[in-house]
Amino acid sequence: MLLKDIYTPDVVCCGGQTTALEAARLMRQRHVGDLVVVEDPIGARTPLGVVTDRDLVVEVLGNGQDPTQTTVADLIRTPVVIAGGSEDSYLVAERMRSHGVRRVPVVDRQGALVGIVTLDDLIKCMVKEGALLVEVMSKGQDREQRARR
Question: Model-level pTM?
Answer without folding.
Answer: 0.84
